[in-house]
Amino acid sequence: MSGPIRFLTSFAQAVATMALYGPAHPARTRAVDGSYRLLRELQMHEAQPEFSFLGDEVVYGQHPLRDMRDWEWAARLAAAGVQRLEFAADVTRDDFEAFLDGIVSQLALPMLDGAQPHAMGARSSGAIRFGPLGIRGESRLTSFVQHATLPTARRTYELTEEVATVEWMHEQVTDRAQLPLLEAESVVRSLAVAMHGDQEMLLPLLSLREFDEYTTTHSLNVSVLTMALSEAMGMGARDVRAFGVAGLLHDLGKTRIPRDVLNKPGKLTDQERALMQGHTVEGARIILESDRELDLAAAVAYEHHIMIDGGGYPHRRIARKCHCASTLVHVCDVYDALRTHRPYRVAWETSAVLEYIEQGAGTDFDPEVARVFVDLMRRMEGRIEHATLAELRAGVQDGVPATSP
Ligand SMILES: [Fe+2]
Ligand SMILES: [Fe+2]
């Protein structure tokens, strides 16, 4: 993974050099040449490289660049309107230089009091696309020349690949007792991207059509909700994503429960209930056996049905405070479960679910967590986008064909 890192480093050096020297200066030419050469080298492996700058992390395609964590340029680029950057296969040196020029002028903006955004260089082409974070393949990215008139069309989201990945992940756990952690992390990153596609945060949630899809849709929703909640509680990007992974994996133990029990319409027998409740212990075991370092996710899998007053399950003989991630996932879990139609109960209205959570503050739920969650969801009203898996698979949302290729 050194190619993308070398390129990004040279890219930042080129921008810094250009900010210092005038157009004809040899240092500037050298810096642009060097960075363009590394870009072309990178393109021998990946014709259309894509980067995302997410808070303190840099993602290349779908792969987080761990060595670039806390790279200060990620925040600078994001501030200059570059949270997502894509290069076309035929990008020329002129395109690249014009792009760098644009970045330099954008970066200089905060220093120029009241200055208007600079017009972008006429030499630029659509070979370099950048913009606020969007979903992979979506056409909201803007080419350089269009930057000043960035469209603010209503966004749609497309999580088809993420859904497929989670389904596959559950199969791997069922068939091979293996948890593909990297894929789980990459799904969470995509969800984080989907949530921050616009200036405002959005909640891309899935609705259930087929009962069989429950564990998949529910896992993705709980992950999104947990990230939104942890963000609202003021956590940093890294914790937010660790909590997102824990949310995604919280019901992993359900992969071991027979489907007829999982989707049973009537009352469960004592034996079935015990099996069902065992998904907590089972999930924690699967996670720890797969990766000892996932202790946070394992704790959440174990604790997410334990109430703040000690009720719920699994029963603990000695009362102990749950991990804070478990208290967050607990609220999000209840919210998503109640608003979903299940074989044994109809879906609740969102307002009723929020009232239920408010009433349970202090007994079922941590009061502070419940308060922040309810506030958040009331504020998010109108910014929650629903799609069913069938709609995602058909590439259609809200009756409008998806824009991706
Ligand atoms: Fe659960
Ligand atoms: Fe759950």
Topology:
Layout (H helix, E strand, L loop, with lengths): L1 H19 L5 H20 L4 E5 L2 E4 L2 E2 L7 H8 L4 E4 L5 H16 L19 E4 L10 E2 L16 H17 L4 H15 L7 E5 L6 H19 L4 H13 L9 H4 L7 H8 L1 H12 L4 H9 L20 H15 L11 H10 L7 H14 L3 E5 H5 L2 E2 L2 E2 L4
Helix pairs in contact: 1-2, 1-4, 5-6, 5-7, 6-7, 6-8, 7-8, 7-13, 8-12, 11-12, 12-13, 13-14, 14-15
The structure holds fe (ii) ion (2 copies).
One fe (ii) ion (FE2) binds next to helix 7.
Overview of this structure, please?
This protein is of the alpha+beta class and 405 residues long. The chain has 16 helices and 10 strands. The protein has helices spanning 2-20, 26-45, 72-79, 93-108, 160-176, 181-195, 214-232, 237-249, 259-262, 270-277, 279-290, 295-303, 324-338, 350-359, 367-380, 389-393, and strands at 50-54, 57-60, 63-64, 84-87, 128-131, 142-143, 203-207, 384-388, 396-397, 400-401. It has a 6-stranded antiparallel sheet with strand order 3-2-1-4-5-6. Strand 1 (50-54) and strand 2 (57-60) form a beta hairpin. The chain is elongated. Mean pLDDT is 80; it is low at 109-124, 134-156 and 396-405. The structure holds fe (ii) ion (2 copies). The site of one fe (ii) ion has 5 residues, from helix 7.
Q: What is the 3D shape?
A: elongated
What is the arithmetic mean of pLDDT?
Answer: 80
- As residue ranges, the low-confidence spans are 109-124, 134-156, 396-405
User: What Rg do the Cα atoms give?
Assistant: 23 Å
Largest sheet: number of strands, sense, barrel closure:
6 strands, antiparallel
- Proportion of helical residues: 40-55%
Extended strand count: 10
The secondary-structure class comes to alpha+beta
Enumerate the strands of the largest sheet in spatial order, edge to edge or round the barrel: 3-2-1-4-5-6
